[in-house]
Amino acid sequence: MPTTPSALGAILAPTDADPVENGAGQMRAIVAQIDRLVKIKTADSTKLNSAALGDVADMSFPIVNGGKYDFRYVLFMVSTGLAGDCSIAMNFPAGSTCNFGVSALDPAATSSIASARMPAAVGIASDGVLSFGVPTTTCMVIIEGTLTAGANGTAKLRFAQATATAGETLTIRLGSKMRVDVAT
Predict the structure, then answer these.
(1) What are phi and psi of 9, to 5 degrees?
(2) Which tens digits make up the pLDDT trace of 91-120?
(3) Domain 36-182, CATH number (from 1.10.1740, 2.90.10, 2.40.160, 2.60.120)
(4) For residue 150, is it left (φ>0), alpha (ψ between -120 and 50) or beta?
(5) Which residue stretches of the chain are H helix?
(6) Judging by DSSP bridges, how do beta strands 36-40 and 177-182 pair with one another?
(7) Which residue from 72, 98, 120, 127 could staple onto 147, CB 3.0 to 4.6 Å apart?
């Protein structure tokens, strides 16, 4: 565990108001450094006929200038149409650097939509975008990467249809998960 405070630790660490008995009948403050944040989506996020990137609810995390973070998203996604194309991006304060990659697992053995498009990792310094296919049956999309913060702020997962397609929706399902670790 690192000994210096992190953005996640600062937000999640207990305060002096969180007392614990020390075994001798005396109270003491908990001193802890928590360096992992986990969030689970509580509702679907849907894009309809839109190629404009938008933030994904429940899928952002705080960052501190100079902090290093490893992140992993496990998204359950589905499209209502055969186009099923998706763009994913990370958004973060200026001066930050980020590398991430995407892989998609399609449960339908006969489909080649998601399994045929697995972009490799990319290095980005701003709103870099990766695009891939999403089938009409729910698939699992895994996004993993690292981020070094260039300023205090928030890192956000963003998504959209790669090409706006009338009448088709692209959905990130509730229950999708984000895990962020402070890198050492």
Answers:
(1) -65, -40
(2) 888 888 888 888 776 555 444 444 433 444
(3) 2.60.120
(4) alpha
(5) 7-12
(6) antiparallel
(7) 98
